[in-house]
What we know:
Blueprint: H1 8-15, H2 19-26, H3 34-46, H4 53-59, E1 65-70, H5 76-91, E2 95-100, H6 105-117, E3 122-125, H7 135-142, E4 147-150, E5 160-164, H8 166-179, E6 185-189, H9 195-210, E7 220-222, H10 227-240, E8 246-249, H11 252-264, E9 274-279, E10 292-295, H12 298-315, E11 324-327, E12 330-332
Parallel strand pairs: 1-2, 1-3, 3-4, 4-5, 5-11, 6-7, 6-8, 8-9, 9-10
Antiparallel strand pairs: 10-12
Amino acid sequence: MPNHRASISDLAKQLNLSVSTISRVMSNHPGISDATKQRVWELAKQLNYQPNHLAAALRKGRSNTLGVVVPHIDGHFFALVVKGIETIANRAGFNVMICQSNEDAAQEKKNIETLLNAQVDGILVSVSLYTQDFQHIEEVRRRGIPLVFFDRIMESADVSAVVLDDYQGGYSAVQHLIEQGCRRIAHLGGPQHLNICKNRFQGYAAALREHDLPVEMCRVHFSDLSILDGSRGMEQLLLQDPSLDAVFSCNDLASVGAMQVLKRQGRRVPHDVALVGFSNELFASLTEPMLSSVDQRGEEMGRTAVHLLLEMVAQGPDNVAPRQVLLQPELLVRESSQLIPSEQTL
Length: 346
């Protein structure tokens, strides 16, 4: 059988040894003679035998696998998060099983079920844009599986999470626009049940108020933040207030849509309307003009989240107090918002 994978039973049969003896050889048990070990290893090499580490780990109560649920992996941010997770997990001897919800709450629930059925040792999750029912997350906690959120979280005092200071990110973006001389600053925001979107909007509003500028809801447009949403939102904002001179967008995709509309209407960026996005996607430095954006420290977020999870796996989730780590954002000033020449990155 050309596709047959050699098993311990095959080795035992050909060598006329017990399966337990072969197993002890594979685990380098000291009670087996060197001659027997040599016979076993020679045949294993000849048959290209590969030990089933997963089965062995499960017998010991461990899968040595961590589960990760992300909303999507086609953007730069979540790709960096996964890179950080895999780097630390692999170094610690764990495999990583990645699932995408594709911004679908029902798919996210299926992802969690898949990871539980795979008996992963812990789960890292960033919730979808539409997740408002967290029963599937509570099931993970009920089963005592170590759980850590990152970026988009279930807001609760008793969960472990690694998030960006999105409030500060929004505040810094608008502070920068005000320093550039902008006074009528609009906001392309996301769903307010989502922690990241709510906090970025609150940072936007706080920066305006601190500089005695009004928070006008006619200058705020909430959507799901796709490129198309950014285009439609920008069109609506200009209809409601043609005098606006800046836009802070909750993500870079919506910023691109906004920029397209501004160009079609003959408005120069940044001279007529300055623009700042959020996430520092790869394309932010490829747009014309290049897009100012808030960097989310994706790789650091992934590394920090998996460190928390591994601590819970090692000690047991009930023995580790819930912790929430707040990472600081960095505003990367590029051409789309820089009206006043400066070498300083805020």
